[in-house]
Amino acid sequence: MGKNSKFRSKSRRSYNHQHASGRWSDHAEGEEIESASRRRIDVPVAMWDFDHCDPRRCSGKKLARLGLVKELKIGTRFRGVVVSPKATTVVSPSDREIVARDGLAVIECSWARIEDIPFSKIASPNERLLPYLLAANPTNYGRPWRLNCVEALAAAFYITGFDGHASTLMDEFGWGKTFWDINQPYLEKYRTCRSSEEIVTMQDEIISELERTYAQSRRDKGL
Fold this sequence. Notes:
The protein is α/β, with parallel strands linked by helices.
């Protein structure tokens, strides 16, 4: 979702016993749902799912299974904030009122198949990009802007001031703490901004500082 090519490119058996696997899966899923039922989000949270991802690894499907996200049919409009790679405005704290009133949605799809998405059928009056952040999910760990469904929702919730909702979502994933660990400095800076324009300025400053640090590191190593 960003334009900086350097930081786009830089970064990072199964339980096969047939008779036991079904019982284990049912037990684990039951525990997940029981855990999620104790924590609810009081604004609409939704997604359009294009079934691009492995269901066993898809964060959006897991959230839907837990009852934390509602699946929308293609063509259904959503009046809240929609995190979309085709947006032109970056999410900011000024979107808090929209999220509080109409909620937050995301497009669950593969980054490799963005061009296959019929964006005209999932349009929203409040489409938003995310600013520079690093993915912590196992598929795209360390890659800028390559956040998955739950990361995108959590980041947007956090930037708009819904810390509890962000934590409720990320707490369902074993790598969730890592997402906060590697992005907290950036998220806190974004929270000091008041508008999308200020978020973009802050993002540019962050990327410039990362570039300077990277260049200095190469000089120190004699590269």
